[in-house]
Amino acid sequence: MHPMLNTAVRAARRAAAxxxxxxxxLDAISPEKKGHNDFVSDVDRAAEQAIIGTILEAYPxxxxxxxxxxxKGDSEYTWIIDPLDGTTNFLHGFQQYAxxxxxxxxxxxxxxxxxxxxxxxxxxxxxxxxxxxxxxRLRVSKVRELSDxxxxxxxxxxxxxxxxxxxxxxxxxxxxxxxVRRPGAAxxxxxYVASGRFDGFFEFGLKQCDLAAGTLLxxxxxxxxxxxxxxxxxxxxGDVLCGNPRVFGQMLQVIRQHM
Length: 259
Prior knowledge:
- This protein is α+β, with helices and mostly antiparallel strands.
- It has helices spanning 3-23, 42-58, 87-91, 163-176, 186-195, 208-220, 234-237, 245-256, and strands at 32-35, 38-40, 63-66, 70-72, 77-85, 98-105, 108-116, 121-126, 130-133, 136-137, 150-153, 179-181, 200-203, 224-226, 240-243.
- 37% of the residues lie in helices and 27% in strands.
- Helix 4 links the parallel strand 11 (150-153) and strand 12.
- The longest helix is centred in the N-terminal third of the chain and has 21 residues, at 3-23.
């Protein structure tokens, strides 16, 4: 395992230990609203600080871009951190959430970790080396037709400007695919595409910290990732479409009818 990836794994496990301890007493947590349907808690902050501390202990000159504390430092290496993706799920005791950590070097994501502490699923990827789940090599699914595909998605929940567009896309995908699921943690949705649990995924308005590790997992597992126009600026737009190569193309055709 690459040394920087190993550091990310260690950081993710430390954060997950904090999260899982807190999950045993959810009534003691007092979440705050960052915005409409957007919550943060002391658990998010403590997990984030554990990650940042672990990373800076190993790489003190690296920069940090974190979900709760924002951007710190100036370096060609930037760690992109979501300490608890799926906070709303976590606060309700719905066990679908994860820690997501990625490393960007000169604008390119090179390392990624997504850790699901509820299932002890450790998803890792290194650019050019591949994607793995608990040391098992990952490949996207081999499903060839959208009609046989299980898709993941995320509903708009803070910004509703694209809601009508989304509902039209959701309607068509529901009619054309074998099924559409909305578990509520985008990082895990992307990891599920990489591992073949989902054949494709689409969502509007995600943040860079939601996408960084997961999109590397997908591409290293042989999948395709673009925005809704089939371009590569999904980090800028936050609109992401991914899947195995056959299903991806059919999903893109559906989405383009509404864009």
